[in-house]
Amino acid sequence: MSSEQLLRLTLVAAVLILSCAAPPAARAYGWPVKPFDRPHAIRGGFDDPRFGQRSRAFHFGIDVSAPDGAPVYAVSAGMVYLEQPFPQTVEVRSSSTQVFGYWHVVPVVANHQVVAEHQLIGHVAAGWGHVHLDEKLDGRYVDPLAPGRLEPYADRVAPTVRRISFERHGRMLDPFALPAAVDVVVDVSDSGGLRPAAPWDGAVRTPATLSLRLLGTDGRPRTAWRNAVNLGLTMLPSRLFWLVYAPGTRQNEPGRPGRYLLYAAHGFCPGAVRDASAVQVRAVDDRGNAAFATQAFTAAPGRQTWRSTPSSGRGMRSSGSASTSSRA
After folding, report:
1. Does domain 25-142 have CATH number 2.70.70.10?
2. Deepest of 6, 116, 250, 263, by most Cβ within 10 A of its Cβ?
């Protein structure tokens, strides 16, 4: 049996890779608020968690901070379509394959009007304090912050991994007495780029990717890196929400930053790989800044009853390293 099977990383492989392969990139574009050629603060990221009254979903765009009443401009030329069910939404179709959406905007353009790049299309609606920008390529939402799209955008800060825990049925286990088939949950977020104004100054985003591998007692890898979560390609379907996010996850709110608990593995078998004594995770943001964290563990001999009390976090260490892409 291969190490991939032993790790039982049920989030990865065919489901996410086949359903979320990225569409081809289009040309880069500027910001929807002035100045067009300078970065602006982001207070909500792509594929971040969104909680409705009865629904759970992934965020299908980014939230660009801007004061109420601020002018909003088209990032690309195209034809306007006003969304009738959503009166504060402007859609601009730049081609048969590329569509931009601007939400929380009071329009100043007419339905089917042709607009030029950087033409005024509306103003930020009262009470929102941001414009939601989304992009669809070939009918699928893509991350505007991915390299080659919204520019310029700078982020030289690595994500932060706060904790790696082993859980079963949402309850934390003692990492030094693990039974078979546990979930690996990572508390991780990214705060890179410009900070929004208060009370959103603590807003964070999810990393673009999260990977996992096993280390031995000598600190050397016992498995290759296995991609667990990819939030930087296209919008994930809502049916995957509780496979990607663990209970306890919350979105950004005024004065209260979001908390993102991501599954790095489901059904992890701690005793399946010989000499494995720690899990290591790697979180990478849109610009290639990477953070690493390691949590030691011990597989319990024989049959094990799991505990309901949180672990003390013994044995965890973390580090971050920035590797900014040429487009940052």
Report:
1. yes
2. 263
Tell me which residue of 150, 147, 148, 142 sits closest to 59, measured CA to CA: 142
Residues forming a β-bridge with 320: 291
Token pair, residue 248, equals: 């306890």
Write the burial class of residue 274 (CB in 10 Å: 0-12 exposed, 13-18 middle, 19+ buried): exposed
Query: Contact at 8 Å (CB) between 278 and 215?
Result: yes
Lowest mean pLDDT among 103-107, 212-216, 296-300: 296-300
Q: What is the pLDDT of residue 86?
A: 87
- Per-residue model confidence (pLDDT) at position 83: 77
- The pLDDT of residue 233 is 83
Write the single-letter amino acid at 260.
Y
Backbone phi, then psi, for 19, in 5-degree steps?
-85, -20
**Going by C-beta distance under 8 Å and a sequence separation of 6 or more, which residues neighbour residue 253?**
none
167 contact partners, CB below 8 Å, separation of at least 6:
173, 182, 183, 184, 185, 246
d(CA 209, CA 80) in angstroms, rounded, equals: 34
Question: What are the helix (H) ranges across 108-246?
Answer: 241-244
Could you tell me the residue ranges of all domains in the chain?
3-17+155-321, 25-142
Q: Assess whether the previous peptide bond of 152 is cis (omega < 30° from 0).
A: yes
Cβ contact 150:42 at 8 Å: no
Please give the sequence-ordered ranges of beta strands (E in DSSP) within 19-70, or none if there are none: 42-44, 49-51, 56-58, 62-65
264 vs 249: CA distance, rounded Å: 14
The secondary structure of 125-150 as a DSSP string is: PTTT-EEEEEEEETTEEE-TTSTTSB
